[in-house]
Amino acid sequence: MANDTNIFAELIAHCKEYGYIFQSSEIYDGLSAVYDYGQNGAQLKKNIRDYWWKSMTQLQDNIVGIDAAIFMHPTTWKASGHVDNFSDPMVDNKDSNKRYRVDHLIEGYAEALPEIDAKAVLVAMDALLAKDDYAGLKKLIEDNKIKCAISKTCNWTDVRQFNLMFSTAFGATAAENEGDNIVYLRPETAQGIFVNFLNVQKTGRMKIPFGIAQTGKAFRNEIVARQFIFRMREFEQMEMQFFIRPGSQMEWFNYWKAERKSWHESLGIPAEKLRFHNHIKLAHYADAALDIEFEFPFGWKELEGIHSRTDFDLTQHQTYSKKKLQYFDNDLNEQGKPIGNYVPYVVETSVGLDRLFLTIMSLAYNQEKWIKEDGTEDSRVVLKIPAKIAPTKLAILPLIKKDGLPEIARSLLDDCKGSFMCFYEEKDAIGKRYRRMDAIGTPFCVTIDHQTKEDNTVTIRYRDTMLQERIALADVKKLVLEKTTW
Ligand code: GAP
Q1: Which ligand 1 atom sits closest to the C-alpha of 239?
Q2: Per-residue pLDDT for 176 more than 60?
């Protein structure tokens, strides 16, 4: 684990050094749990998002995508239960005034215990959380003498609830009408789908079962925001609400459970690094829920949630808006009559884009060492990002900056750059340029040398194996397209 911790710190440094992720507002010493994606990070994030979007919309017969606004009518959040229920039990240390989410405080403590003791503490915590037993949670913290990381004391307040939604004021008269104009920054994208359920169903003439997918920013005032981009205050979700007949929810819950796990595997995540975790304490809207967990360098943690949300959200919006949110089912029942009107049930899949980014980076980051033919040691740091989502697909490298080689290279660049992301570089020794492309995660490098002028062939180098072979210049684009198109 200590080794994993070092590797994780090195991965974070690597993300910064190679233009993947920067601390937000770094020149002002940063903003806690907020991150910016750099030139390579933004492209990788877009590629992951596009891969999800295509799998969830284009490749499905009955799922469409929307893009709802971040701001929503404030009643949305009253109806959804977020105003009253979207809170976590918190505890403050009286000496440092630092506030902790109770589950994170206890989990952090358990991480340092032997496995058997850690399990006992976590089982006790889960049982108390399931009963909302705050006095019991405080006692568990005190009995285990869990200390504040800053004051190093065990002097705790009572455990209390703390709402995680950010709010802001809306419109020019905000200051005069304080309170009336409060809007929230959405804590999940799902509600933008629920309030548009009928708009999409009617305009798209959708028949149940059907889904609505969406990607976009969500905001949560996380108290303990740790582990890099794992838990952020501003993050991005990729969610899909699947509208179904009441009573069929377990069938669809199991369907999406299997589908989503195999989708993650299609991104190169090994099956043994993924597992299911059933929720004991269900959210206020769910009748079944599970997480797909990934084994991050800091342990098994939630990557995606699959929730059977019943008809809770649509019924709530129907009540608060006084507008019918029902579906007329034309299919015939056993008596040969249309099934008629009902409020659909919903199974949701919800994955954090940033968390999936971290998953892919933790798997991709490799430090390799080997002995060369002359007996000396060599090493490299390589990002083995799956070629289909790598930010740059092809590096085009003229061996030297003269003799007409840059002209041939630039002509290849012009031919390829409309089809996929390319990188052109003519400075430094070729070995150094290959290493830089390994560190950025570029799966293919093509070198144009003097032989190219004679026989129109180039050297292609494969990132993962470092193998090099000679291929026709005219075949480069086709080869890269074959290996990266999905
Ligand atoms: N609509 C359901 C929903 O929002 P959730 O389990 O709270 O459910 C879904 O969140 C996913 O969003 C999580 O599995 C995680 O990947 C991601 N996520 C949640 N909070 C996050 C945070 N603070 N930072 C980064 N990702 C987060």
Answers
A1: 1
A2: no
